[in-house]
Amino acid sequence: xxxxxxxxxxxxxxxxxxxxxxxxxxxxxxxxxxxxxxxxxxxxxxxxxxxxxxxxxxxxxxxxxxxxxxxxxxxxxxxxxxxxxxxxxxxxxxxxxxxxxxxxxxxxxxxxxxxxxxxxxxxxxxxxxxxxxxxxxxxxxxxxxxxxxxxxxxxxxxxxxxxxxxxxxxxxxxxxxxxxxxxxxxxxxxxxxxxxxxxxxxxxxx
Length: 206
Hints:
By secondary structure, this protein is α/β, with parallel strands linked by helices. Helix content is 38%, strand content 21%. The chain contains eight helices and five strands; from the N terminus they run ααβββαβαβαααα. The protein has helices at residues 2-9, 11-15, 85-96, 116-124, 144-153, 164-181, 184-191, 196-204, and strands at 19-29, 55-65, 68-79, 103-107, 129-133. A five-stranded mixed beta sheet has the order 3-2-1-4-5, with helices on both faces. Strand 2 (55-65) and strand 3 form a beta hairpin. Helix 3 runs parallel beside helix 4.
């Protein structure tokens, strides 16, 4: 039900051929993401843990356009600090350089998203920017959560970098893989926010 309410919130924007941008933030530390693995019989797998909570923060976006529904683009930026309101504004400004026409941003209720600086930027750019908030406590409705889970299950699984530089490089490898394999549309479908009938209609040019 929550997903249907959110989808209806930007349904009109899809009719207007707006680009939908799902945005989310996450953090990655040097601690390993322990996953099931294999080893020779009789040998227990061992993961070296540096016991370091040093981390990088990520802000990512999946960009979906009705004009080209099969092409979902991934944008990802890293910071050496927790995401702040000015980081959010800077990220929106950066996205704007890559996206033409009206844009609908869909994100959660993170305090940085509700900050006055972000609200002021959205109000000043309302001619092209619309912001939709996901319901509280509903991370499953944001497809960018699938990006984070995918990274943790692949490139970062059982990975213990010696430095934040190594961690950043590994995340970049994962970003390139997701872009190459084009997982983005599957991530969005998994959340159920975009009705597949709507996607088919857009693909047919109706």
